[in-house]
Specification:
The complex is a heterodimer of chains A (112) and B (115). Chain A is mostly beta strands. In chain A, 0% of the residues lie in helices and 57% in strands. Chain A is built from no helices and eleven strands. Chain B is mainly beta. Chain B has no helices and eleven strands. The termini of chain B are far apart. Classes of the chains: A mainly beta (112), B mainly beta (115). Chains A and B meet through strand 4, strand 5, strand 9 and strand 10 of A and strand 4, strand 5 and strand 10 of B.
Amino acid sequence: QKEVEQDPGPLSVPEGAIVSLNCTYSNSAFQYFMWYRQYSRKGPELLMYTYSSGNKEDGRFTAQVDKSSKYISLFIRDSQPSDSATYLCAMGGMDSSYKLIFGSGTRLLVRP
Amino acid sequence: KAGVTQTPRYLIKTRGQQVTLSCSPISGHRSVSWYQQTPGQGLQFLFEYFSETQRNKGNFPGRFSGRQFSNSRSEMNVSTLELGDSALYLCASSLGETGWATEAFFGQGTRLTVV
């Protein structure tokens, strides 16, 4: 079993829809969580960073962390065709010793 | 503020050769991590450096090595290249003071093709 599980998709939604992307993890020591967006043939771009549990909002993006369920989510409101990309969750903690553990990524397609 | 810069962007090498990739972190960042990204395995951690010291290493063979210079720039080297080393190599930069609790910013990567 992988430490971080993420549905690979693809997830196809119409423009303007609310998108929900999720990851589950098994290591209860994970304390910080990030979401990255990666366009084809580009490096990952950091979207959201959350430390410990709770919600964080930035524009159209909301990140949620539920440590009790070992479940994190990224919500995208009013999705745009330019949001079409692969979304990667990443996490780490004291026992992961300076390395991030990544999910496999979810491909998102926003249809005009 | 300039982002993370990786050079070269693209490389084509022959099996058995060696290659050196370079990463310049964001100014003020002292931690540099390297990751390998392939379609089958996703993003896999190679190693992390802070103040010229390797603090952690992933499960890769000894052909993969790296170093960090006093100005925080980092290089990674792959010797005796194999076809399976074809991948996007990504460098991530972070403040790194605690090593694990800060945001990590990635460069555009170096796409290595081994033929």
